[in-house]
Amino acid sequence: MLDLPASPGYPFSLRVTVDYALGDDGLTITTTALNTGATALPYGVGFHPWISPGARSLDDCTLQVDADGRSWARLTRGDGSTVAIWMDGAARAWQVCTGNHVSPESAQRTGVAIEPMSCIADAFRTGDMLVTLEPGESHTLVWGLALV
Questions:
Q1: pLDDT per residue over 82-127, tens digit each?
Q2: Looking at the chain, which runs of residues are DSSP E strands?
Q3: From CA 117, how far away is CA 83, in angstroms rounded?
Q4: pLDDT at 105
Q5: CA–CA separation, 25 vs 20, rounded Å?
Q6: What is the per-residue burial (b if ≥16 Cβ within 10 Å, else e) of 92-110?
Q7: In the beta sheet, which residues pair with residue 106?
Q8: Which of 4, 9, 46, 82 has its CA at a distance of 20 to 30 angstroms from the CA of residue 24?
Q9: How many CA atoms lie within 13 A of 22 on its CB side?
Q10: By the 8 A CB rule, do 114 and 104 touch?
């Protein structure tokens, strides 16, 4: 649990709790944010898991993003194994990147970030998909990783 006090860059009070559960179906991550302040606050949350292509090249992989009650992203590696990331309805956006052109060291395409997010990356500027939490209100987002 993290109590985030108001600060000049984000003048709101927020309590965030992240729970991790490992089971037969993979890793499940539950994040709950609670507005502990006296005014409404803008909120968004996202995660940044990097998935390895294994021993083969990322160019040998296939990425599929679909929906089946949950929203899923599946990276099928060159060896046929698949890493699946899913998110519940509180996560409304995916961001996918390979890190190309970040630095010369990352140009080898050694992984792909498949990011479940409650809003788009620029939501604090645009307001797109941004969540507003009233005092005492909470927001819970659940997502997970599995080898399938």
A1: 999 999 999 999 999 886 666 665 555 678 899 999 999 999 999 9
A2: 2-4, 14-23, 26-35, 41-43, 50-51, 62-67, 71-76, 82-87, 93-97, 112-117, 131-133, 138-147
A3: 18
A4: 59
A5: 13
A6: bbbeeebbeeeeeeeeeee
A7: none
A8: 46
A9: 1
A10: no
Please give the C-alpha separations between residue 50 and each of 65, 110, 137, in angstroms, as whole numbers.
16, 9, 31
How many other CB atoms sit within 10 Å of the CB of residue 17? 13
Going along the chain from its start, the domains and CATH numbers come out as: 2-147 (2.70.98.10)
The encoded tokens of residue 22 equal 């490992």
Q: Which structure tokens are listed for 53?
A: 């292509």
Alpha-carbon span 144 to 89, nearest angstrom: 13
The burial class, CB within 10 Å (0-12 / 13-18 / 19+), for 128 is middle
Is pLDDT at 54 greater than 90 in this prediction?
no
Instruction: With 0.90 as the threshold, say if the pTM is over it.
Output: no
CA distances from 83 to 23, 66, 95, 141 (A): 15, 14, 16, 20
